Amino acid sequence: MTEGSAVMDELRGLIGAMTEPGINEVERGAIRRYAEAVGNPNPLYSDVEYAKKSRYGEVICPPGFFGWPIKASTGAVEVMAPVFSALFKAGLVRILDGGMSYEFFLPVRAGDTLTWYARFVDAREREGKTGKMVFLSFETTYINQRGDLVAKARNTFLAR
């Protein structure tokens, strides 16, 4: 695989591709279950009375809640499908999740409705110890029902 390889050309052609917007209502029970699943006992995520007395006035989402609990339930077409299809056709079938980072702008409360969309932002080829690798970057943007940007997530995958 070289910088001018067919798979890199195909991936570069997909940069900027976005999902259809996904829309989810943030449910108090889903917040509580997520906090329990990750072992986060903060009462802001589960105790309604405690949260009502806080500066937020309602149960809020823990930081990691923006990942799969939101995306998995929307049915939106994944922007990753054509990207991974291009990789698989080129024989790049070993995929490693290279990590996710979040940037938070506003708290998300139970009862909020989030609209999100994911975008394919970059594909880079690098030489590793065991050969060429492709680094893929995706960005997901989350907006609440008032049109406020509440969070951005960036996810990196490595393929070889």
Structure explained in plain terms:
There is one protein chain. The protein is of the alpha+beta class and 160 residues long. It has a single domain (6-27, 65-159), classed as Hotdog Thioesterase (Thiol Ester Dehydrase, Chain A). The chain is 24% helix and 34% strand. The chain contains five helices and five strands, in the order αβααααββββ. The protein has helices spanning 6-14, 28-37, 48-53, 68-71, 80-89, and strands at residues 22-25, 95-104, 113-128, 131-143, 149-159. The protein has a five-stranded antiparallel β-sheet with strand order 1-3-4-5-2, with helices on both faces. Helix 1 packs antiparallel against helix 5. The radius of gyration is 18 Å and the shape is elongated. The termini are close together. The mean pLDDT is 89.
Summarize this, please?
This protein has 160 residues and is an alpha+beta fold.
What attributes does this structure have?
160 residues, alpha+beta, Thiol Ester Dehydrase, Chain A, five-stranded antiparallel beta sheet
